[in-house]
Amino acid sequence: MENNNLMTRIPSIFFKSSKLFFYLNAAVFILLPLFTIVRNRFIEIPILYYNIFALLIYCFVFIQNRELLPLDKSSKMSSNIKYYIVFPMAAPFLIAIFIKYFSKLFSTGENPQNLTQYTTFEKFAASLFSALIAGAEEIWRYSTILVISMLLHKLVCKIINKNKIIYQNIILAIALLISSLIFGWLHTFSYSEGWFDFDITILLSGFGFCLGLILLLTRRIWCVVITHIMFDVSTSFTLYRPNLALAWNLIALLIIGFAILNFSVNITHDKMRKHKDADQ
Q1: Measuring CA to CA, how many Å separate 25 from each of 128, 208, 215?
Q2: What is the dihedral of CA 53, 57, 63, 66, to 10 degrees?
Q3: Dist CA 210 CA 219 (whole Å)
Q4: Beta strands in the chain (DSSP E)
Q5: What is the pLDDT of residues 220-264, one digit of tens each?
Q6: Could you state, in order of their start, the residue ranges of all structural domains in the chain?
């Protein structure tokens, strides 16, 4: 099987981990949920400490798998532009559409998070800063998928010894679903007073699933971090000035249109080149 095969490349960032690497990610997997629960239910921790904690998680990414690091110097500049500018600008628009219809299938509330309009610029600015902090959740997502995948792998590796790549991808799919549900449940503590809210959990699980899928398919952690930030920024625009959100969405549509056009042109060029090679 070729190294460029997606089924082969995706597991490579999760199943090649040392014990120390596993334990460090397990610490992140446990600490962020613990911090969230303690902060929202038991101790009123100042926001400054939470921001420092998120910053430490951001720093943790630099000791992760090298394949996840921000820029691939060996690739073309167009590849980096695609993953770190075009994709994060366009993806939130598509994710918002998915979440809207996904939540209608399971959720009973129109606005389970009880989001309200920002009446002052100060609230809007604070939400933009919160968006930057929220990107750290994607480092936690990688750690969560890795830890769950490794644990499941240990459980089944003695039983299943054939079609290794296939069952590794199945394990990753299960880990993605579990991590998404945990992600959705943890937001219960931020948006409600109880310990479980079905509507919030389903809504945010759908969002988490989309982001986890982006992580698996792109294999670039900063791509999904920036996408998460841009989604929250778009939400902030919507709650502060709907006309700004409209302009943002129009830009996203233009980027999506350009990406589709570019993809079509590349396919056409590839076909023409193959025909030309066949004629020769």
Answers
A1: 27, 18, 16
A2: -160
A3: 14
A4: none
A5: 889 999 999 999 999 998 888 888 778 878 888 888 787 777 767
A6: 6-279
